[in-house]
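Reopening: structure tokens for the S-adenosyl-L-homocysteine complex, inputs below.
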Amino acid sequence: MQILSGLTLDEIEKITDALHASKFRARQIHNWIYLKSVKSIDEMTDLSVKFREELKKHACVTDTKIKVKQTSSDGTLKYLLEFSDGECVETVLMRFDNRANLTACVSSQVGCAVNCSFCATGKRGFIRNLTYKEIIEQVLTIQRDTGLKVTNVVFMGQGEPLLNLENVLKAMEIFNENLQIGARRLTVSTAGIIPKINELANLDMQSTLAISLHAPNHEIRKQIMQIENKYPMPELKNALKNYIEKTGRRITIEYLLIKDLNDTLDSAKQLVQYLHDLKCNINLIPYNPTAENDYKRPSNNSIMRFKSLLEQSGKKVTVRLERGADIDAACGQLSGKVL
Ligand code: SAH
Ligand code: SF4
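Re-run output (same inputs, fresh job):
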């Protein structure tokens, strides 16, 4: 049985060819899957009943299951999706009332090997990479379930996208070409895998690169992100400079704010110094408490004080809105365990 969801037009043509149907049929099926988000072949009403019956013998729309779906009071949806081998990942859809944008936060791996101390996903360890089809399926499943069109995708769910780069790049290409989500509406977030950042620089990536920096210096970063031992901040900075120079793009620096750990005046000063010659925006993420550790979220006052200290350097600074906190859909809470 072929799964239609996630296939390119060429791949769908192979199926229609085998059924002696015209290439136009393949185009129709492609539209139903990607643009009209149907749940079944029966809904493909511009195909004859006879052809649909024939197609159903060889193909189905999807085999991804929605295991759990939760709706937050702010409209955020969280899905626990199950793939054919029984592994699950979480995908979140964020809607912002005042904007037409619908942003899907997708996972790139089941679990994560990077094991940052503040992150629930990391605590699970690495299970496996997702295929590019499983990455696309997350967006298509949301579209099928809600009937809405996803406009933006961020790779900020479970997993480290740059450690599954081949599948992530292929998924981005399909988002772009088949789902008509422009490259600039795609964001890849990484803990800072330097060789892969260099690879992206050479590909001249036009999507947004977000770096989970989270610390103002080597010592503090080492404490919360083991990866700092392998890819330390000075080398990371060289890679980022090279990336910005080659792609011409502004990057996003993500900075998790943890009370009394990296939210001090001193930290703000050192961060400004580290970033002073990098073309970047800064996104502050108030820490979301998870069960696994006892870090604390700073008060709103200290978040705002930290923000204004950074703003004095002339950089654009935003504070990430908390979405779906009441359904554990906030960053770092996507562990993928069955709820
Ligand atoms: N592995 C990638 C992408 C997934 S994590 C990365 O680390 O960038 C997406 C974002 O959520 C990262 O910036 C991550 O640091 C952040 N995050 C993880 N745990 C968090 C927590 N408990 N509270 C707030 N943000 C968290
Ligand atoms: Fe992995 Fe990102 Fe979590 Fe670190 S923050 S453990 S890199 S998913």
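The chain has a mean pLDDT of 93. The first strand starts at residue 2 and ends at 3. Marking as resolved unless the reporter disagrees.
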